[in-house]
Amino acid sequence: MARGGKGLGQLPDEDTRVRDAWRFYRETLGSPRFVCAPMVGQSELAYRLLLRKSGCDLCYTPMLHAEEFAGSSEEEMARQGFTTCAEDRPLVVQFCAKSPEAFLEAALQVQDRCDAVDLNLGCPQSKAMRGGWGGALMEEENWHTVYAIVRHAVSSPSLRVPVTCKIRVFADDRKTVRFAKLLQEAGCSLVTVHGRQRDRALHHAPANWQAIRAVREALRLPTVANGGVDAPGDAERCLQETGCVAVMVATALLQTPDLFLLPDAGVMQRQDGNQQNLQAESLRRGVRYCLQYLRIYEEYPSWSLRAARDHLRALLAPGCMHQGQLRHGDLLEALDAAGAAPRPASALHAEQKDYWQGVCQELRDVLKLLCVRAGLCGADDTTLDEFHWGTARTDSVPRALVVSCQPQLVIEGASKAQQALLRRAPVNKRFAERRRQQAAALQSCLQSASKWSRPQSA
Ligand SMILES: Cc1cc2nc3c(=O)[nH]c(=O)nc-3n(C[C@H](O)[C@H](O)[C@H](O)COP(=O)(O)O)c2cc1C
Any coiled-coil ranges, and where (predicted)? Predict the structure, then answer.
């Protein structure tokens, strides 16, 4: 394959590049071992800040589309999922791209607010396959494009941050190694290997740590393992089996943000075999995570409120599962009724704090109901552990319900799409109907809550 190519600048020799890559890993990133994966809609600023307090050494942003992102205003960047702050470091911003120019332009736009930019080389979605980015770039006929994207960026005198890449394994380890070596040759500084193949049928297959190990042994660069870390203790096992410098986790961090700090899962279960205690403890832990997250979210809201609701549901899920059945499903539904008030035009700005505090209070209202019902706290308690409930009520209809029962707000002259954006709601009747059902679920919870004279047992 011809790798020279027009417009590709000179690179230092391989020894120098490898030395620089390790210096980047050690000095710039601070030798991270535990990494939060890029997650569309889920690794947003507030959640990253929670994870950083809970044992993650390095975080990735959700994947952003370089072609769309390049040239965006601050507000457009936020809408696409990129916001950050001084405490949000070390940070890698991930892009998908199909052209070297777009990737470089997007990278230049964020380079002062991150430590590296990452190229997504594994997104399996059909739009990626059709659009020629993400997983589509794994096709061998597209490897020259991958090489050009990385090489164009790293040889640009304007780009001051390194380029990293996130790949998936192929069925044949030798092919995975060839692909990874191409990235090394192109000037990439760190490679993350997701140990599952792109094929949809294999998405829930166990991650192949041996394949990751093969890449790590073949590369001279820092290599990060990803996939198959589901419970406390797995991360250490993954590091040992793959020999990688760090381990990246996605799904498990959505339910257990302090996964990396917890003792091995087997040890935890042996400590307390009582099923009911475990269940109550799990719910309590989930609520504490939610309250910690809301405390951060209030200050650093994301463009999409959906991310916050999804986080709360995921954090509560382990404590709400009992013998394979979901409990308190009505309250999990009710989380969707919170934050339905029309959103101010520039809701990310500091002057809109009241709006975000209101949204978070509504979410806390629902959490408190859940705790009272599960017997984790009394209706009159003002705190759960160190967390204040604010002005949460369990004896009257919270604002969430009032707002969601109101007729849909109509803004004159605005198109349907604009109306939806302003209301933060999709335009369709089924959505409105679902909102009403959620509100009804919440109302019935509230009616029973008002009758509780003392907390019910879990
Ligand atoms: C909600 C969600 C969103 C994701 N978004 C991205 C993404 O934006 N970019 C990416 O490279 N991978 C993305 N992934 C894949 C993860 O980064 C990771 O590679 C994969 O989930 C395997 O790790 P795990 O076994 O710890 O979940 C996403 C995964 C999840 C669960």
Answer: none
Q: For the chain, which residues make up each domain, given as ranges?
A: 14-266, 275-451
Dist. CA 34 → ligand 1 center (Å):
15
Full-model pTM: 0.87
Q: Give the C-alpha separation, 256 to 90, whole Å.
A: 21
Per-residue pLDDT of 2-58, as tens digits, reads: 454 445 678 999 999 999 999 999 999 999 999 999 999 999 999 999 999 999 999
Confirm if 182 and 215 have CB atoms less than 8 A apart.
no
Instruction: Choose the residue to mutate in 166, 192, 251 for probing ligand 1, maximizing ligand atoms within 8 Å of C-beta.
Output: 251
- DSSP secondary structure code for residue 455 in this structure: P
Give strand ranges (E) for 15-126: 34-36, 58-60, 64-65, 91-96, 116-121
Match 């991930």 to its residue by tokens: 94
Whose structure tokens read 């120098």?
16
Catalytic residue positions, numbered = 123
Q: Which residues of 354-378 are buried (b: 16+ CB within 10 A; e: fewer)?
A: ebbebbbbbbbbbbbbbbbbbebbe
CATH 1.10.3720.10 fits 14-266, yes or no: no
Residue identifier of the C-alpha nearest atom 29 of ligand 1: 39
